[in-house]
Amino acid sequence: MKLRILGCSGGIGGEHLRTTSLLIDDDVLVDAGTGVGDLSIAELACIDHVFLTHTHLDHIACLPLMIDSVADRRSKPLTVYGTQAVLNILKAHVFNWLVWPDFAEVPTADNPFVRYQPIDLLQPVVLGGRTFTALPVDHTIPAVAYRLDSGVGSLVFSGDTGPCDAFWAAANRIDNLRHLIIECAFPDSEERLATLSKHLCPSLLAAELSKLQRPCEIHITHLKPGQMELTMAEIDLCLGRFKPQMLRNGQVFEF
User: Which residues, in sequence order, are CB contacts of 63 under 8 Å at separation 6+?
Assistant: First the structure.
């Protein structure tokens, strides 16, 4: 399994700042933030599956545009996966004919551009020998993390979350865990905002990582533009023993 980071920033505002999206092999996306916009038309047309952690704009911004751009080049619907709560929000507030057309009915309901596939927590979805499993997190709206399992190794992507014991319990059951991509959206000076918005800051992340019982590489995502260096410096101070690395746009993982 090959994973390429298309976007991992908590915002925009620079040449390399793209919001959250991960490309698995050539045909699967986890989230569809602004990083998707850097793909070519041919690359976009190859994507058959999109797994959503949640529906905040930085995680879905390019999904409507991607579908519109390549629908005429595809012979089958794009499948969008999410919990029923996530899909309900997406259908009610994005693909609702007011913000964007309902591509589950275009060109017809029998032959649509998009197909929605509800998933359940901890229930694996297998695609070509690759397993995708939604894990619990705690965010301000319905949200999940994902375990990506090649059969040889697993990578866990937290999506957006605040403190969540259930997430760590699920991660600790993964015996082939190799990588953990975990958010840290704010520096410690904004701990109150992190708590209110159910994100993490370095001190909260340190408390959460103390619950991890599996050895793995730690990668930090969702850093806010303008605060990246400060937040990483604070992370290095309180989490140095974990040797966390800042996730970077264009980074590739093979596992």
Answer: 32, 36, 50, 52, 80, 94
Residue 89's alpha-carbon distances to 76, 116, 122, in angstroms, are: 24, 12, 21
Block means of pLDDT (10 residues each) for the chain, 255 residues, are: 98 93 98 98 98 98 98 96 98 98 96 98 98 98 98 98 98 98 98 98 97 97 96 95 96 98
CATH architecture of 2-254: 4-Layer Sandwich (3.60)
Looking at residue 62, the DSSP 8-state letter turns out to be T
| Distance, CA of 143 to CA of 234 (rounded, Å) | 27
Tokens representing 148 are 């990506």
